[in-house]
Amino acid sequence: MAKQCFFVGCDNNSTNNPEKLFLTVPQKVDRRKLWFEAVGRTYIPGKSLYCCEDHFDLEKDAENWIHFKLMGTRLMLKDNVVPRSIVRKETSSQFTPTSRKRKMETQQHSRGLRRKLFPEPTVPGTSQDVTEDVEELQLKTVASPSGMFVSAKSPEKAVSPLRTKRRTLRKATQTRVSTKDQSSMTSVEVADKSTNTLRSLSSQIYQSPHKPIQGSSTSLSSSSLSLQSGSVYEPSSDSLDETNMMISKELLVKVEIFKIENNSRF
């Protein structure tokens, strides 16, 4: 629907004068009555009416004139402004083709500044460049300047040398831990065997030789007494002391040898 200027005696409308700016008559009752009194019309509440720019000095009457010209936002008039019968004589519109062109250039310039100050996130490279890069990665293994190595089978996965080094160190640490566990288990087993051996040697040392032997002959040395079958013999205290001393010396030697061998292992 065409916008018609409601000022008495003004024939401007948006169809015949598309270059002109048409301002909406305020809806607030107080201001609306002031506008109707200024143009000499009877007050009509609620209806949407318009007044063309010829009845205003927009540079002075507009509250956001500079912002409106630079950014193209909605024009806001000051509260005390009312339409006047003064029509601009120098031009038929405050927005001549030259000024409109200048306004468009200003808006384009402001948009360019916006893009520079607030750049939108863009994907680098075109789809063709991405396709060529993928094909090149599939043909051969590529080493980038940052030290990232890309496999030809899976070009999307990149492995850093630092990550490879960390994995190697982790595996080496796990191997050391498992080796220490095995060595500790071996040490426990050797200690158990040593304890068992010492116990057996101790039992041999403290084994009682005073039990009587029946049913067969026994010789302690080449000059010892020979016993006939069925006789009972109990060794003398001197022979028992000598035998115990020999056994003790032999066992002590074995214990020392066993200690030396175990110390060399650990």
Summarize the structure.
The protein is built from 7 helices and 5 strands, in the order E-H-E-H-H-H-H-E-E-E-H-H.
Provide structural commentary.
The protein has 266 residues and is mainly α. It folds into three domains: 96 residues, no CATH class; 25 residues, no CATH class; 87 residues, no CATH class. 49% of the residues lie in helices and 5% in strands. The strands form two sheets. It has a three-stranded antiparallel sheet with strand order 3-4-5. The longest helix has 45 residues. The radius of gyration is 57 Å and the shape is rod-shaped. About 17% of the residues have low confidence.
* N- and C-termini, Cα separation: 104 Å
How is the largest sheet built, in terms of strand order? 3-4-5
Instruction: List unreliable stretches of 5+ residues.
Output: 139-157, 208-233
Largest sheet: 3 strands, antiparallel
SSE arrangement, N to C: EHEHHHHEEEHH
How many distinct domains? Answer: 3
Radius of gyration: 57 Å
Number of alpha- plus pi-helical segments:
7
Oligomer: single chain
The 3D shape can be described as rod-shaped
Q: What would the average pLDDT be, to the nearest integer?
A: 68
The structure class reads mainly alpha
For the secondary structure, the number of strands is 5
Strand content: under 5%
- Helical fraction: 40-55%
